[in-house]
Design brief:
single chain; 2 domains; six-stranded antiparallel beta sheet
Length: about 170
């Protein structure tokens, strides 16, 4: 096993990047190996098989963001506007939706990456001048220009992808 120096996750011998945080592993020699089903099951034995994903709850929620990599659901409720990004030490302005727990740094999410807001019946997204850009259904957005979102659209903040689900859409 190779222990990641960044997050201390145990990785299989021969792994070049950490399966948990994506960091390059020290001592990775560039060779690969086959993983047996038994090894895979052993690595994943502590992962719960049910009730992993949050449900979309709350009668006041007007929509939700479903993170495609993890299945996590982030409800959008009560407020009409949410900034999205990641928290870092010493940051004076915090995003409303902190994506740090979802490997945002490794995915290239900026500290204040974008904003999603409800304007009457319209839902719009705007990139806030992020370093790695934002995409809607694979199309790169211009910074500081609002783009209308529809139910089911895929929004990517850098490489972090989420599907927008709108209530009553």
């Amino acid at each position: 096993m190779i222990i990641c120096s960044n997050c201390k996750h145990s990785n299989l011998d021969g792994a070049m990047f950490c399966a948990e945080c994506g960091a390059q592993l020290v001592g990775a020699d560039g060779t690969t190996q086959n993983i047996t089903t038994k090894q895979f099951e052993e690595l994943n034995k502590d992962i719960p098989t049910q009730d992993v994903y949050q449900t979309f709850e709350g009668s006041d929620a007007w929509g939700s963001l479903h993170l495609l990599d993890t299945g996590q659901v982030l409800p959008l409720s009560t407020r009409n506007e949410f900034t999205m990004g990641r928290i870092s030490e010493g940051q004076p302005i915090m995003p409303d939706i902190d994506l740090s727990p979802y490997q945002a740094y490794a995915a290239g999410v900026s500290r204040l990456h974008g904003v999603i807001k409800r304007d009457g019946t319209r839902i719009v997204f705007m990139d806030l001048g992020s370093a790695n850009g934002s995409y809607i259904n694979g199309k790169r957005l211009s910074s500081n220009v609002e783009q209308v979102l529809n139910h089911g659209d895929i929004v990517a903040l850098g490489k972090l992808k989420m599907q927008v689900l709108l209530k009553n859409a």
